[in-house]
Amino acid sequence: MIYTVTFNPSLDYIVKVDSFRLGEVNRTYSEKMLPGGKGINVSIVLKNLGIQSVAMGFIAGFTGDEIQKRLNDFGCESDFIRLQSGLSRINVKLKSNEESEINGRGPRIREMDIKKLFDRIDRISDGDVLVLAGSIPNTLPEDIYEKILDRLKGKNILAVVDATRNLLVNVLKYHPFLIKPNNHELGELFGRKLQNDEDIIRCAKELQSRGARNVLVSMAGEGAILVEETGKTYKSPAPKGVVRNSVGAGDSMVAGFLAGYLANRDYQEAFRTGIAAGSASAFSEDLASKEDIQALLRQIETIQRRS
Ligand SMILES: Nc1ncnc2c1ncn2[C@@H]1O[C@H](COP(=O)(O)OP(=O)(O)OP(=O)(O)O)[C@@H](O)[C@H]1O
Ligand SMILES: O=P(O)(O)OC[C@@]1(O)O[C@H](CO)[C@@H](O)[C@@H]1O
Known about the structure:
By secondary structure, this protein is of the alpha/beta class. It has two domains: 1-17 and 30-163, UDP-N-acetylmuramoyl-L-alanine:D-glutamate ligase, CATH 3.40.1190.20; 177-307, UDP-N-acetylmuramoyl-L-alanine:D-glutamate ligase (3-Layer(aba) Sandwich). It has helices spanning 38-48, 61-73, 111-121, 144-151, 165-169, 183-189, 197-209, 249-264, 267-282, 290-297; strands at residues 2-6, 10-17, 28-36, 53-59, 77-82, 89-95, 99-102, 129-133, 158-162, 178-179, 214-218, 224-227, 233-236, 304-306. Strands 5-4-1-8-9-10-11-12-13-14 form a ten-stranded mixed β-sheet, sandwiched between helices. The chain is globular and about 50 Å long. The relative contact order is 0.13.
């Protein structure tokens, strides 16, 4: 079974405004509400690709109920821990001349809630896949992902981590199967702006030397680079299309990569499916459907191998 964990789920309120004016009343011409949070998005795209997973994490209040309901409406299984107080966040995604986002802090998670999560984590067994994705509320310590992987030590699971800064760095020693920083997040880890592909590959390999098995670096409209565990490196441009909503493109890429890998344990197929799923979501109002992904997959033929 595949388990996704989202510590801080959200309702994503996606609004479109013509020429947004700061400090004034702006009227939307389009509004949409979707269940969000990185692990949840991975579960939805996996489901769209015909793969069931269990979405775990913490929800609270009426917004939490709505997240769970909408996720279940997509046909996804969930096993959330319900917090006794607070509200799951509503993240505002403002589309105008530029895309801006306001992501909430999220409710307080207490020690007893973490214990409940660990009980669920203990049920994960050999052959399962665990996806840890997204930020954690700032009331939690930055070693929480690390603690989860420590708990699973000795079990033969594939761990995927999509997180930033220390949350990511701290898990490398547990040899995660896949990490997926974007090029900016990767640069942030090394305290500088990465200048070119060689620079990106060098940093990705450095994360491998610290423990990551496969490093997938997404670069939005520029495509992605994969440094796989054998050291082989691939780059692919992104397919061209009209970007409608890039929220969740990275999560879709993680779902696509997993789906592609689990089909035949082939990294090139995983990489191509990851790019197709990421771009298909960027070109859709919602997260990518199977048909969208398959249509783009046919366009991603050239995988440039680089040293
Ligand atoms: N403008 C775009 N045009 C084509 N493909 C895109 C575009 N933006 C994203 N993608 C696809 O989605 C993948 C992931 O995108 P990106 O690098 O923006 O991830 P991310 O920063 O993790 O995104 P997010 O946090 O919004 O989920 C890219 O590698 C690419 O395949
Ligand atoms: O605040 P975090 O956890 O870093 O990111 C949350 C979020 O922006 O990530 C998803 C897109 O990747 C959205 O569905 C959600 O609103």
